[in-house]
Every structure is written in C-alpha cells, then in structure tokens.
Amino acid sequence: MAKIRYGLSNCYYAKYNGVVNDEERYDTPVPMLGAVAITLDAAGESVDEYADNILWFHSDVNNGYSGSLEVEVLGDDFRKDILGEEEDSAGVLFENSDAPVVEFALLGQFQLEGDNDTGKRFCLFRCTASRPSMSGSTKEATISPQHDTVNLTAMPRVSDHMTKATAKNSSNKYDTWFNAVVTKAQ
Question: Are 71 and 36 in contact (CB under 8 A)?
C-alpha cells in the first residue's frame, strides 16, 4: 500500500542549554498549540571536483535546514523563552532589540496513512527563530484568519553534528517522544 504524509500536529519547543558532561542538554518540551504548516528546505550545496576529464569527486554539504513555521498565534511562552521578549508586572510583553539569539529543539508530528502507520515524529535539534511579522485586516463579510510565521534555521549540533531525528510508531521512543528531547541509543 502506498503511503501519504499530511497533518502537522503536536509541535513542541525545548530550550537548548548547551553541552554538559559531553551531553546535549535541553529544557522539558513546551507545547506550541495551533501548528498550521512547516516548510524546511535542505541547506548546503553540492561540491563537484573534476579531474582527468571526468567527475572526480562529488559530495553534498549538510548544513541543516532553513524555512518557516506557521502557527495560528505564536504563544507568549515561545515569545519569552525563545525570542527574548520581557513581561512586566502588568502583563505587558516588551520586545528588546538586544535580546540574544536562543537556540531550541523543535519537535512535531506528521500524520501518515498506509501500512497501519499513525504518524512520524520529528525533532530538529538546534534551531533559531526570527521574530514574526505583524499583520491583520478588518473583518468583512467573511473572516480570513491571520497566522504568525517565524523563519527557522535548523543547524547541526556542534558536539555530534546531528541535525534531526525521526521515529515511526514502531520505535520504542515513540510514546515518550514529547517528554524530553530524544537521545541516540547506544
């Protein structure tokens, strides 16, 4: 039976804390409700070297991914934890132009159909996000929802060069995927 992939859901982010005792450390994943779409293109180019009138060497450079994540409304937790916005005692969020870049893991799931699959879960280990654009329009005869979109860069980790992990429902880590950022089994 042929398989198809659709339906982005279960997006989470986990703030990256760096390498401690040779192990990558992350905060507990936090839900990002209202995932609409994710589009990531491979980053890196091909290297071709010619000698003796033939293609002598070919290699692809894997620099991760770049693209965007679209959500219904970007949550305040993400704005504070990742984008560095500051909330005052009156509950007002302030954007600071000097906020540092914060790296995070992005976790999520695509629905799969075929061969009794229920989904394929993913984790991008070292991401950064841009500030979303601001947009809105007046209500007319119909309502057109406006979404928040952040540009994402998913880079390889420095310690082990891992960029992403994926798991189908047959993996023994599938059921606990969103409890913590997945580590490679030895």
Answer: yes
- Cβ neighbour number for residue 125 with a 10 Å cutoff: 27
pLDDT at 115: 55
Q: Which backbone phi and psi does 166 adopt, to 5 degrees?
A: -135, 155
Q: What are the residue boundaries of the structural domains of the chain, listed by start? A: 4-45+56-168
The Cα–Cα gap between 83 and 139 comes to 29
**Tokens coding 158:** 């420095």
One-letter-per-residue 3-state SS of 48-61: EEEECCEEEEEEEC
pLDDT per position as a tens digit, 32-89? 999 999 999 988 778 888 888 888 888 877 888 999 999 999 999 999 999 999 999 9
